[in-house]
Amino acid sequence: MIEIGKYHIDLWTLLDHLWLPVIEVGIGIYLGPKLKKVIMKTADKSLDRGATTFLASCVNILVIALAGILALEELGVNLKSIVSLVSALGLGIALALKSNMANVAGGLQILMTKPFTVGEFISTPDHKGTVTSIELMFTTIRTNNNKLVVIPNSNLVTESIVNHSKNKIERIKLVFPVNIPFEMDSIKKEVDAIVSRNPKVVQEAGWELTVKNIQQGYANCLLLVSCNTVDYETLMYELNKELVEKLSVYQDTKKDSSSS
Question: Which of 241, 245, 251 is nearest to 179 (CA)?
Fold first, then answer.
């Protein structure tokens, strides 16, 4: 018997009432993540990996919630009271966590409409990378710098998303300035030499060089080149580097600056 102020608590009676609810909660906390891991292991073989990861998150939460409800019922709490309490809490939580509810709704929308799936390469206004998982409230992408970026699902359904994997071939737009006057035919020959020897360029699609606009003292030239989606960023960096190093208009500028 334990005395706490005016109250007398029978320790054995307390333990007799608590041991089963504690075990039920413990099983829920243990079993939920375990089931999630089991489902996640099947994600690689699944036809829709995003739906599998989303399901894994839901199962984890439901198992833990069910264990909590069973424990409360074992303690003698009326199930109707639990339902009423959960409803009231649900309303309060929904109002307090509107953004999180929006993320859950966004995850469901992504899974149903499939603007992208796991393994596809996408870009948002702020990030670009390969989708590694679609979960209950967020989507994870891996950037070309090997960083994992976690994006709330609500952002992905309200922002503009480019799914680069939908098209196998993309067009690169490169803009580079050239001092006026200049010979376009001469520049085209030099660009052709750069483009034609790069294996990442889809030669069959051809390329195009034109003047985008004219500024005071120089013109902005626009180079359009096609490539496979997976080579997009790498080729863009390579061409920018080669244009600066190989075009005679830039070599002449270097000579003038060094002589002065």
Answer: 251
